User: Fold this.
Amino acid sequence: MRLTRFAALAASAALMLGAAACGGGGSSGGSGSDVKKDVKFDAGTTMEALNKAQKIKIGTKFDQPLFGLKGLDGKPAGFDVEIAKIIAGELGIPADKIEWVETPSKVREEYIEQAKVDMVVATYTINDARKQRIDFAGPYYVAGQQILTRKDDNSISGPDSFKDGTKKVCSVTGSTPAKTIEQYLKDKATQLVLFDTYAKCADAVKNKQVDALTTDNVILSGFVSQSPNDFKLVGSKFTQEPYGIGVKKGDTKFRAFINDVLEKIAKDGRYEKAWKDTVGKVDSNTPSAPAVDRY
Amino acid sequence: MNVLVDRFDVFAGGFWLTLQICILAGIGALLIGTIMAVLRISPVAPLRAVGTAYVTVFRNVPLTVVLFFSAFGLPALGSNARFLDVPGLNVVFSRLGTDLPYFRFAVLGLCLYTGAFVCEALRSGVNAVAPGQAEAARAIGLTFTQSLRYVILPQAWKSAVVPLGSVIIAMIKNSALAGFFGVVGDLSQTADSLVSADGLPLIPVFIGISIGYLIMTVPLGILLDRVERRVATR
Assistant:
């Protein structure tokens, strides 16, 4: 009963976000997915198995604007999705053979461990706790936490503005940014509000129930681009959130293969194109691809 | 499973907050429900209409929607539900007095929703009292209030206690939704943050919060069984 309510809530929120994001411009149809025809992989590797099966299960977010957002056409779109399509293409698998699996934050490790997905590209911050259970290729992007306030509010300049205990901040339940901002707060009970979607936080900021919304910069940019008259970003990024691609623990060859692909596309312009087709619509500064970490 | 031991403080904090919500919402729902039940059985037609309208609205709207209007509708109307910041009560339940209104919104939403069910549970109890009892009360000259107080309600209570218990247990479980409307740190939301922000394994954490809810609901169920047996044998 409770689960169906959650699902309904999440679905309606995703739909609303989807509708809002679609207003921004037409989707980029299948960019960056040139499929390698004559690829050969060593026997026994994950790459060979996937290539032979001509099928891959990829986990992504279905509710994260700009990165992985399932639109009304039923297909996810965003930067994560483009990166995933490129990797599938390098494995010799066309984009329409990809089975997209929704992987919200809390099930990502579980799904990889249980082989419900072959890899996860889902705004997945690389950290040590997660590395205990799975392995990360990448990073392919370094996001950072930032703060959004009302356009007319000049009282907040950065995370330190919350230290005196008067300003209130909103984020999303169970997210890393929610955890991070806690250390800047004097009293969690009176300063922190958590919702299940960022859209609700944005509403709370607009209604003046809270003073700020904090999460990764790219998500905030999306809100500012939607309503530039209401919101602005303040301060600079105060964390480093390297987004990686999650694979099964111990599958070193698959991880090395993805890292090779990431290094290749950073040079040949496909990375830049994937960015420009998705996040680039609200954030015109194309980042340079970060160096992959072959730990 | 040592997650439960290592992060016991987090679970305990979540438990305490959920318990606070449930106690406040339970008291509120019983009050609202009793008032509405009296309205629904009163001899005055407009009052009956008020009671019926209340139950019709709040019993038929999903709790998520009630909580949504509470958390986003009230602020839009300019209310922060400050009237719940009762002096004295806000010492024990410190969240009542904070600048952040979401705890109050959640309690209010849960009260209003559960109140409709409490009303119907009580009314079913009243309906179970033989009509002859009310007629006899009237015949000996008792007023409406007197007949309710001395004749109807003491008997109605017996058959209402079991459905009332189910309503309150359902409310405790429903309180898990509060975490989705801005209340930080209740039991079910605790689980979400332990799992996704701290990367703890899903199943032990959810076993942990299940235990938390069971600690609240099982003793209540046992207590109700006892009460039922006592009132029934009399």
